[in-house]
Amino acid sequence: MNEKVLDIHNLKTYFFTRRGNVKAVDGVSFEVSKGDIVGIMGETGCGKSVTALSILRLIPHPGKIIGGEVIFNGKNLIEISDEEMRQLRGKEISMIFQDPMTSLNPVYTIGDQVSEAIRSHQDISRTQAMRETLEMLEKVSLPDSLEVVKKYPHELSGGMRQRAMIAMAIVCTPLLLIADEPTTSLDVTIQAQILKLIKKLRNTFDTSVLLISHDFGVISEMCDKVMVMYAGVIVESADVYTIYEKPAHPYTRGLIKSVLKIDMVDDVLETISGIVPNPLDLPPGCPFNPRCRFAKEICCREIPTMTEIEPGHFVRCFNGGKSDRCKRTNY
User: What is the pTM of this model?
Assistant: First the structure.
């Protein structure tokens, strides 16, 4: 059995605003084993990024982790001190953020920023740190690293900035790498290179990866296991092949069927009607029921629990993975 690197139980992160309480993450549980790439998929606003930030305890005000456990390498990250958490960030857990331009410091060179990540966790000289920085920039396939270390973020292309971010994230060979939409702002060719690089780094350092994306194509290409999130909860989880071949939740089916495929000529691209509900005003019952064409009366009254419909395949749905046989109730 694979060793667990991350084991999350009933994680709850709420934002306490003047207009009401937002349950951004509401009872999320999952695990990541050593060397695995686990994906979190869903639309914008479903709680993916807040889940990642909760692991690192980087929730901005007025957000707060109000319950649950985040067990990383045997430690509950919710309970350790701020100083212990700072020592873990960047060394044992690292994160690649969506937009490197807002994550990299514009007034420091790439070399200074990557070497600072090294010196924060290792007692080495500035010269040695810069030497390791050059080696890491070469490992992430940044061309002409001797010049790149002298440049500022605005002097690099989007793909080069993302590679620099990855270099900072993995320079201390973390046990867990969190990648939050790492290819969103990149063109298709650069996107493929970045994804290939993340896989290569996983294989080289045996690092576990938590990959967050709204793009099912990226998830299916990269991940061993997949979790689908909606309105702050996981609605389906399984290995990537099961999710792709036998999606059980209506939301998962909608996400997969809405992906544009290269062989689509006369087929009509399907869409999911409606939008993600306002977190301050969630509908009663299953939060997906206003958009679900299989919704029944019980779906509008009660919240379904996570059920194992086959070994390793869990779904939060009253239809139990048999949505194709259900008829929509008018309401």
Answer: 0.89
